[in-house]
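Action item from last week, closing it out:
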Amino acid sequence: MNGSTIAAIATPLGRGGIGIIRISGDRALSIALSIFKPRSLPCSKTSSCRFPLDQIISHHLYYGNIVQPDTQAVLDEVLLAYMKAPHSYTREDVVEIQAHSGHAVLKAILNVVLQSGAELAGPGEFTRRAFLNGRIDLTQAEAVIDVINSKTEKALESAASHLAGGYKQHVEQLRATMRDILVRIEASIDFPDEVEELQLLSVYPQLQASVLEPILSLIQQYEDCHVVRDGYRISIIGRPNIGKSSLMNWLVKKDRSIVTDIPGTTRDVVEEAVIFRGIPVNFSDTAGVHITKNTVELLGIEKTYERIHDSDLILLLLDASVSDYELENQLLEMTGNIPVILVFNKIDLAANHDNIVENKIFSAFPSVAISVKEQIHMEALVDLIVKKILEKTQGEEPVGFIPNLRQARAFEKAAGYIRQAMDGIQQMRPFEVIAMDIRDAIGCIDEISGARATDEILDHIFNSFCIGK
């Protein structure tokens, strides 16, 4: 943040009732008033008729026109809202211009704002300024994008709770407990003659009950409820030219994957997020697995293996018209504990498709026999997918707070340091070593709140925002 005044269109581009241009920074008001003609003041056609700065009241709406500063030509009639620092989204002076929503008019207004001295905001720069100016912490900043991206009421409920600051307070309380323990240990190190001797064994149960267990609970909450936040991850795997792309297109109801008779058409993971029977689902069409020396195909197959281990459910497609399933057996071994549905495709080509499942089923896995081409038993497949999803998600109302992946990984690191400290207590290691572990754990918590976040972390988070937020 360099003290500049930034501006951007804050609403999605397209035709609609209202479009908003947001301006933030020390010059926000002066820039806005240089192009704003209030309807309440008597003005001639040639007069600039600026609204006096000292007459603008914060958090009031003003009706008027946005004009070209050189010609005074009217661009649009608008409402102008001024929010004086620090009582604004960014804790800076903020002006929002509410215009008619259309690409041309919003772009024209933004252009005159930029010509008057503002700089175009980068992705997430308004929210980044809110964070850097101390209005929100990093968990709340991430909650902003979660609110925007929420696909279900559960996801919105969780994100709104984080945005309101409940999660922030929970993290702060956890840090305060760790800090209190650390201060007591450090006092015993620095002032051994003045401070009552600390009984490390009494610290152990406090670390267990008040620090480690709450951290492990948050990690488990992520594992159990990430579907609420991120969606249920389903990967479609199998041999080349088995119908994976056709199935993907049918499931997402659009031509998302390329379908040809040429084996190996899909060489990368193709993803599509949809609401599937009311549940957010991320479908992935993967490269066909087979023996090949083609470098590009090998890279695609490697990504397939990676995606298998990042899935909540695997749809393994098999050719119902053949009998050799050695490759499929190898793929099943790779899935580990991830749920799998065996999908026997091309039953229209099988000699006796009524008995195909009984004849060729791998008994440990649920299965269904279908034909994507002929649309046979497709709803039975959908019912089976929904059943597996509900087994994972039923009863998973978001209780408490749900960390995102970045936060969960930081909590895992913190838990590791706390375990080391507890082991050190049991092994009667020096106070200095135990204090170092607790200090490192606090550092992990500070990464979550943003108190110790690097520019790389901040860039990664805020670059995922749209421009104008």
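Closing note: The domain at 141-227+404-462 is CATH 1.20.120.430 (Four Helix Bundle (Hemerythrin (Met), subunit A)).
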